[in-house]
Specification:
The chain contains 5 helices and 12 strands. With about 210 residues, the chain is α/β, with parallel strands linked by helices. The chain has a single domain, classed as Metallo-beta-lactamase, Chain A. The strands form 2 sheets. Strands 5-4-3-2-1-12 form a 6-stranded mixed sheet, with no helix packed on it. A 6-stranded mixed sheet has the order 6-7-8-9-10-11. A hairpin with a 2-residue loop joins strand 2 and strand 3. It is globular, with a radius of gyration of 16 Å. It starts with a strand and ends with a strand. The relative contact order is 0.16.
Length: about 210
């Protein structure tokens, strides 16, 4: 499995001749972390929830111009929003992608939105903004800091899941120097627990 980190929570997964983009958010779009012109194929777009750092409508629309037959899987709230733009989406997974309802972490100033997590090829789970779900995937893409939770919360949750590999996501807010230092600390800590914590830069391809 090839995993390309495209800033924050956006990942491009390539496996079994399928290309899957997860959470095409505004940070990835504004910083041009993904060059759509260089993207040769796209089979799925997966969107965990409606917050702009996970779904940016102009980003989705540009992807659809090049890949009009891409399958979009998301929650019912976003499917309704996309339908207003004449974009078809579904909550139903298939043999490659499973979509499972999982709670967005609590927010102090508003109700959390509808939220799903995705498991791909029975191998990788993208957690979006949730730290409350069960998964036995070998690889977990996990939010490691956010307004809704701390790095310590994420670490403790990950220890309970105990995947083989952790891909850090939801870290756009960290300055690069600090992020790299935290990555190193986390990698060293998880190594003692038998977990491979990856330390990707934007644009890095990881083979897992």
């Amino acid at each position: 499995m090839k995993i390309l980190k495209l800033l924050h929570s956006c990942l491009l997964i390539e496996e079994q001749d399928k290309a899957i983009l997860i959470d095409p958010g505004v940070f990835t779009y504004q910083e041009k972390a993904l060059d759509i012109n260089k993207l040769e194929k796209l089979d799925y777009i997966l969107i965990t929830h409606e917050h702009p750092d996970h779904m940016h409508m102009p980003f989705v629309q540009e992807l659809l111009v090049k890949f009009p037959n891409v399958k979009i899987i998301t929650n019912n709230t976003i499917a309704t929003q996309l339908a207003k733009e004449n974009i078809t989406a579904t909550y139903e997974g298939d043999s490659i992608v499973s979509a499972i309802k999982a709670p967005h972490e609590k927010l102090w100033d508003k109700e959390p939105p509808d939220h799903v997590i995705f498991t791909l090829f029975n191998k990788l789970t993208h957690a979006g903004d949730s730290l409350h779900f069960a998964a036995n995937s070998e690889i977990v893409a996990l939010g490691i800091q956010a307004p809704w939770g701390s790095t310590t919360d994420a670490v403790n949750f990950a220890l309970g899941l105990h995947p083989k590999v952790i891909i850090p996501i939801h870290d756009w807010m960290w300055k690069d120097e600090f992020r790299k230092g935290m990555y190193q600390r986390l990698a060293e800590f998880f190594k003692t627990k038998g977990i491979d914590f990856k330390t990707p830069e934007t644009g890095d391809v990881m083979e897992v």
